[in-house]
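Journal club prep — side note

Before the paper discussion, L.F. wants everyone to see what a predicted structure for a comparable chain looks like in token form. Sequence:
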Amino acid sequence: MNRKNLTALAGIASDQWGMISTAQAAHLGITAVSLAGMARAGELDRLTHGVYRLAGTPPDLHDDLRAAWIALDPHRTAAERIAAGPTEIVSHRSAAELHRLGNLDADLLEFTTIIRRQTRRTDVVLRRGTFDDTDWTLVDGLPTTTPLRTLRDLAASRADRGHLSGAVRDAVTQHSVPLTDISTELAPYAGSYGAVAGNGESLVDVLLAESGIPADALDLVERLARQIVQLSTAHNLDPLRAVLHQLDRQRPVDVSRKPDESR
């Protein structure tokens, strides 16, 4: 047992879900043979080729996705990659699962990469594509397409209409993505889903009707979203405070309370 090696590994692993790559360990002077020995001794758990996790780190539902992302660029740490602007981000069904959009089967680990990457893993899908800073966000530390970009990617990859409708529903109700933005992003794929070709609003209507959201609920979400945006802009409030302020305004008054009842 080499405590010095374990401490050095922990310094990097602490910022990337308790995980360390063989290449990152090599930068610390720790060989692959040493890592294998530490795994046999129960100090490390092998997650995938070239990626280990410190023993005792609580397992997480998305460990496979995290390990696969680390393996795509194993020499740099997660912090270095994100600070420089990620060249690989979680996308498509994997992004939908992270955002909890719909109920898609995310048995494959999907990433969009702006540079050429290769993998031997049959459960990892790499898609060449482009994205800018407005297309991704951090979800549990992983660079991931935004809910809006995720919807576009799902439509472009011809996701099942039922699954897409559930994803759109959750983007609106859970992430407050404006319907107008969704309509714009999905317009090129409208005809493929039985809506009026090129008409994003028509497609959104079809998808929301299939997902079962009442029209009055959608109107309320849209109205509150507009009010929150206006409120945060007018009073220079951050979005969360604006939401809380707006909810407080919507709360019904308890007419049964006497004026002197402060508690």
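L.F.'s comment for the group: The two ends are 60 Å apart (CA to CA). Keep this in mind when we get to the figures.
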